[in-house]
Amino acid sequence: METIINxxxxxxxxxxxxxxxxxxxxxxxxxxxxxxxxxxxxxxxxDVAVLTGINDPLQLHELFETxxxxxxxxYGNRLVIxxxxxxxxxxxxxxxxxxxxxxxxxxxxxxxxxEEIANETIALINQGHKRLLMVAGEAYPKQGFQYVLESIxxxxxxxxxxxxxxxxxxxxxxxxxxxFRQLKNENIGTYQIFQETYHRETYSKVHLGGKKRDYNWRIxxxxxxxxxxxxxxxxxxxxxxxxxRFELLAMMQHINELEKVFGVGPHTISxxxxxxxxxxxxxxxxxxxxxxxxxxxxxxxxxxxxPYTGIIMSTRETAQMRRDTFALGVSQISAGSRTNPGGxxxxxxxxxxxxxxxxxxxxxxxxxxxxxxxxxxxxxxxGCYRLGRTGQDFMDLAKPGAIKSHCGPNALSSxxxxxxxxxxxxxxxxxxxxxxxxxxxxxGLPKDRARKLVDRVINGQKDVFx
Length: 466
Description:
- It is a single chain.
- Helix content is 47%, strand content 11%.
- The chain has helices at 12-21, 27-37, 45-52, 57-75, 114-127, 145-157, 177-184, 200-206, 215-219, 221-227, 244-262, 281-284, 292-305, 319-326, 364-373, 383-386, 391-398, 404-421, 425-441, 444-458, and strands spanning 78-88, 94-95, 131-136, 159-160, 163-164, 167-171, 191-192, 207-209, 233-236, 268-270, 310-313, 332-334, 377-379.
- Strands 1, 3, 6, 7, 9, 10, 11, 12 and 13 form a nine-stranded parallel β-sheet that branches. A two-stranded antiparallel sheet has the order 2-8. A two-stranded antiparallel ribbon has the order 4-5.
- Strand 4 (159-160) and strand 5 (163-164) form a beta hairpin.
- The protein is globular.
- 52% of the residues are buried.
């Protein structure tokens, strides 16, 4: 029997009042919030509202500089790399912004069988990926939910002579508590689900059919997931459906609710913007289009508001926008992505059958070389998950800064492994120089750990972490 969950924690009236009160914050209010953010303890709803009201160029500069300071203090120069793997574009919902919607005749439906999933996984392993996000449309073939569980097993079991996938995160339809327990038993990493929009009226307008039309079932999904023992969860908003200022405050209410009930908030926040999708007019003409400046502002505000939560940037955005947001708080990026089932094995980027249009079409090796050239260490590490540093345990290490002595060295060793096994000669040169430079700049325990781990990889060992 499902636990009854209070679904009233998104308080639209409160959000409206706060946004109106701080629509034009004065200089002193902005200064106070930015000073508070530098303490790395997060912000409340009123603080976030103040930051959304910033338009002055000097204040924007200060906001961005503070976001950069927080990102560097907590995460250093590492950037986690992953790829989405779409196993199906079959869907029973009617979401007006999505190419996968049930009545869309403009795409070819495809459900990968287990052999095809294994082939897709091997194609990604051969690129160098170690961390995947498994994605499925919100309908399954005749096996039902068992198809999802079997697919996760296939992802983990697929191997090449150079390795395997070490962490599978999952983005699928909301489940019952018992189904979430079954999902947990498959050793997944993060369970990720987006509310798309927290504004109830807008939600009902863009979700016209299917179970996804039930706002309450979706908003309570992370409660059920965490109740079932999945302590790393990811949330997100599809920016462009409604006023981004409202969405940010509603997201904070959601985070506060999870922290109140479970003692810890989401592990990650994703920040997708509406992008063109086959058969969707609203995707090409967002009702609340978010400008590039506003988008950078969103990322920066989130970094100040929830400093220890990962921020994910997908390949929806252009290469340049992705570069711009690394310094503003983004800590994870997808690379070399395909959003059509079967796209990796066939090396086909079929945007017609994909969920949305991509902005960054570059292969993984080119993205890695670009990231490293900017001074960021691409991390393929999955050590925390496999050592049990998740949920509250992760936050207990992250908040006092202790996690950096693990994540920094692990990022370097996993990057060295990528360079040895997969990188082009040009990328290996850029990456090796960055690794040596980064180790040289470290001090104490992190430096000692990094040097030993990287040397072990150079000498032929794989999958070393602390």
